[in-house]
Amino acid sequence: MTDQPHLTARDFTGVLDIAREAVASHLRSGEQAGPDAEVVSAEGTDGEGLVRATVTSDGRVASVDLTPKAVRLPAEDLAAAVVAAVNGAWDALAATVREKTRAQAAGSWDPARIMALQQAAAMRTGALIDKLASMNTAAGRVPRAGRTPNT
């Protein structure tokens, strides 16, 4: 893990704050908003499995678990492993939220409702065209050929 950039405790705290706020902001703007929203969690690990982190959809880091080997790492390597685990958890959480959103969207697909909306839009568009044609006629212009007004 020595190929990771040197991270201080301040860097680590800043990264967590930015990530937490970004996820919380994204979830506030999406379908998770509201006091009754389900809190979803996800886990991530560093590449070597030394650190496991759990984050929640309300923007919190729920837990960070370290193996005994992780505790013996130099501070900068430990910090890098924690950052990797937390970022992995955020990625997993984002994937979970995307999948839930897709499933909810697919479940709300109602072909009959969409057909009714299309028919209503067509009727309104036809009424608009009829009104424009009558305005053209009243202004002394000839209406477009081939168009019969709706009745």
TrEMBL record:
Region: Disordered, residue numbers:
28-47
Any idea which UniProt keywords this protein has? DNA-binding
Q: Does the keyword DNA-binding apply?
A: yes
Reply yes or no: does the keyword Hydrolase apply: no
List the molecular function annotations (GO) for this entry: DNA binding
Tell me which Gene3D superfamilies the record gives: Nucleoid-associated protein YbaB-like domain
Q: Which Pfam families does this UniProt record tie to the protein?
A: YbaB_DNA_bd (PF02575)
Name the record gives this protein: YbaB/EbfC DNA-binding family protein
Question: In which organism is this protein found?
Answer: Actinopolymorpha singaporensis
Lineage, opening ranks: Bacteria, Bacillati, Actinomycetota, Actinomycetes, Propionibacteriales
